[in-house]
Amino acid sequence: MKNIVILISGRGSNMQALLEAGLPCQVAAVISNRADARGLNIARARGIPTAVVNHRDYADRDSFDAALARTIDTFNPDYVALAGFMRILTAGFVARYRGKLLNIHPSLLPAYSGLNTHARALHDGVKIHGCTVHFVSSDLDHGPIIIQAAVPVLQDDTEQTLAAKVLYEEHRIYPQAVRWLCTDQIELNEHGQVVFRQRKQSGHTLISPELE
Ligand code: GRF
After folding, report:
1. In the chain, N or C: fewer CB atoms in 10 Å?
2. Domains and CATH numbers, the chain
């Protein structure tokens, strides 16, 4: 059975979704850069080993990332899942885990990389927004896309209602992506694109607002 390590910085709801999904892999550890990350208690309550590597204890990103990698590697993971991990990782760290490092981002990448994705989507008046699970590359919030979920942006949506709708979908697609990986259904091709070994594709179109 494959091993995964989950990295968090805060609430940990995506981590919780992964823990509760009955995945065909072992969550070897949850690691946080903050001792007060709420998600650590959720992991501990489920008997998952936890560790804290506090970025404030290190002089620079390189030394923090090196310490983080040492901690991760003690658990010997096949995959490392970033779940609300709020540190920018160095190119060296990303290269070390190439093809093994995953992230969930609250937008339909490549649109709205970075922070405040829901406010920016509302400001722009986009009619479809969503979330993405992708392999991490050295380009922030870019990298080969595994799965996306799209939600309609309604006229009376606020940042809070939109965030809640997107988060609901995050909790569905992240476990699915990890499940595919842990059952060897995905590979990265030579162009850095994700290919599925065998997948039925759906031809549904999401149109928002609806056609009359
Ligand atoms: C999620 O919206 C995730 O997409 C983003 O940070 C947030 C983390 O939330 N990267 P949680 O800690 O998983 O509840």
Report:
1. C
2. 2-196 (3.40.50.170)
Closest atom of ligand 1 relative to the 14 alpha carbon = 13
With the C-alpha atoms ordered 61, 40, 149, 172, is the resulting torsion angle positive or negative?
positive
Neighbour count for residue 170 (Cβ, 10 Å):
24
- Please write the tens of the pLDDT for every residue from 152-211: 999 999 999 999 999 999 999 999 999 999 999 998 888 889 999 877 777 889 999 999
Nearest to 83 by CA among 164, 166, 167, 15: 15
CA of 203 to the centre of ligand 1 (A): 29
Q: Which of 5, 11, 9 is nearest to 86 (CA)?
A: 9
Against a cut of 0.85, is the pTM above it?
A: yes
Catalytic residue, candidates 55, 105, 118, 123: 105
Contacts of 212 (CB under 8 A, 6+ apart): none
Three-state DSSP at 5 gives strand
Is the beta carbon of 12 within 6 A of some atom in ligand 1? yes
105 labelled catalytic: yes
